[in-house]
């Protein structure tokens, strides 16, 4: 691993002399300068004399806890990174330490290979911070800058992004579809010391179940039919950087166990390989689902939830931060115009803005983006009028007051053009599957019509992702040609 070449000055705090010697020897062998302390008091005395690159502390110390030391460092605004060592099975302590800003944690009995790898990760870029990577093309603006919005909620999201970027702690980004979860994940990566390394984004719901293991962990040549050469998986590709696991709630239970193991062991074994390779990957995951409810329903492993949910960033739906609408529209219009080579960028008329602020955006910022794309393409002037927006009249609510959330539209009732649900009196269907398909088809077509054939918005109004919507439309042979063109890019 390339980080193992960075050396630093390390303070190790533990009251067990044998362990202290073990850690010390291991660090000296790696070329680090090491000092040791057996209590919070001793450690603080050493810290008063000099700066360290890293402090490794046991959680339980005779005169306090590792957390005490961390809080003292935080209060004194010291730059030292902290790794805490917790007793086996005390995950709460580890989580508490990560939340308090620890770089990472190790569990007793400490595996020395892991120990070296975590230390290397902590010291990796201390000496020479890498400037944030500037992705090429249309993404050239940093993700944090693209996270537009002056609402308190968005301000909080940006503060959290900058705060959590410093550590290794796993982050779970929660929010409805299209709210900007991936943008938040990218921003965390770009602000972090890992920004010079890879950001690998994976949509967990889009990979066929039988390919998950090979895609995530890679495989060795000959591991299965068709494996003609060694291939790295997402984890290896993200080594040193950040792995973004989008739609984590869609991961099947069997794969959840394997993922948990890799996260706990910090090592990955490609399919067909005999040994594991140590890994240094920061995990950011995202979901539109309520994962706690998924755990309660037995669809998501509690231990994995616990691991991933160390720090949670909630991205609110657009309808709950309509104060951001003007700024987001402006940013999106500038981006759309720039990508299309149009100048100056089109503006929204006052009426168009008022109309947008009365819409509840089931597909959130992505829906707004699609809507503006279409409006720019359709409008013949530099000013986009309300009529260019193609907003369905039926979904416009009351004008919002002071950024209050708008109420959602009523749940769709049973479609009138679907087979009748006259359950008491009518005959039972002779083919239940076909009957239910008809009901589903009618509902989907109705939602699509209501949303001007915008699949994202129609799907969101029914609690479905775009992918699920596409799948259902394909299964039920609902084609775009049937009912008019779709309103969004493929
Ligand atoms: N605050 C914002 N300001 C400007 N643009 C934004 C903002 N939030 C999101 N966007 C844009 O909206 C689009 C959707 O964002 P993103 O893909 O991050 O959402 P998501 O929540 O990950 O969606 P999904 O759940 O469908 O994966 C992107 O083009 C993104 O750049």
UniProtKB/TrEMBL annotation:
<keyword id="KW-0597">Phosphoprotein</keyword>
<dbReference type="GO" id="GO:0005524">
    <property type="term" value="F:ATP binding"/>
</dbReference>
<dbReference type="InterPro" id="IPR011006">
    <property type="entry name" value="CheY-like_superfamily"/>
</dbReference>
<keyword id="KW-0804">Transcription</keyword>
<feature type="region of interest" description="Disordered">
    <location>
        <begin position="403"/>
        <end position="428"/>
    </location>
</feature>
<keyword id="KW-0805">Transcription regulation</keyword>
<dbReference type="InterPro" id="IPR002078">
    <property type="entry name" value="Sigma_54_int"/>
</dbReference>
<dbReference type="InterPro" id="IPR025944">
    <property type="entry name" value="Sigma_54_int_dom_CS"/>
</dbReference>
<dbReference type="GO" id="GO:0000160">
    <property type="term" value="P:phosphorelay signal transduction system"/>
</dbReference>
<dbReference type="InterPro" id="IPR002197">
    <property type="entry name" value="HTH_Fis"/>
</dbReference>
<dbReference type="InterPro" id="IPR001789">
    <property type="entry name" value="Sig_transdc_resp-reg_receiver"/>
</dbReference>
<feature type="domain" description="Sigma-54 factor interaction">
    <location>
        <begin position="147"/>
        <end position="377"/>
    </location>
</feature>
<keyword id="KW-0067">ATP-binding</keyword>
<dbReference type="InterPro" id="IPR025662">
    <property type="entry name" value="Sigma_54_int_dom_ATP-bd_1"/>
</dbReference>
<feature type="domain" description="Response regulatory">
    <location>
        <begin position="9"/>
        <end position="123"/>
    </location>
</feature>
<dbReference type="GO" id="GO:0006355">
    <property type="term" value="P:regulation of DNA-templated transcription"/>
</dbReference>
<dbReference type="Pfam" id="PF02954">
    <property type="entry name" value="HTH_8"/>
</dbReference>
<dbReference type="Pfam" id="PF00158">
    <property type="entry name" value="Sigma54_activat"/>
</dbReference>
<keyword id="KW-0547">Nucleotide-binding</keyword>
<keyword id="KW-0238">DNA-binding</keyword>
<protein>
    <submittedName>
        <fullName>Sigma-54-dependent Fis family transcriptional regulator</fullName>
    </submittedName>
</protein>
<feature type="modified residue" description="4-aspartylphosphate">
    <location>
        <position position="58"/>
    </location>
</feature>
<dbReference type="InterPro" id="IPR058031">
    <property type="entry name" value="AAA_lid_NorR"/>
</dbReference>
<dbReference type="GO" id="GO:0043565">
    <property type="term" value="F:sequence-specific DNA binding"/>
</dbReference>
<dbReference type="InterPro" id="IPR009057">
    <property type="entry name" value="Homeodomain-like_sf"/>
</dbReference>
<dbReference type="Pfam" id="PF25601">
    <property type="entry name" value="AAA_lid_14"/>
</dbReference>
<dbReference type="Pfam" id="PF00072">
    <property type="entry name" value="Response_reg"/>
</dbReference>
<dbReference type="InterPro" id="IPR003593">
    <property type="entry name" value="AAA+_ATPase"/>
</dbReference>
<dbReference type="InterPro" id="IPR027417">
    <property type="entry name" value="P-loop_NTPase"/>
</dbReference>
<dbReference type="InterPro" id="IPR025943">
    <property type="entry name" value="Sigma_54_int_dom_ATP-bd_2"/>
</dbReference>
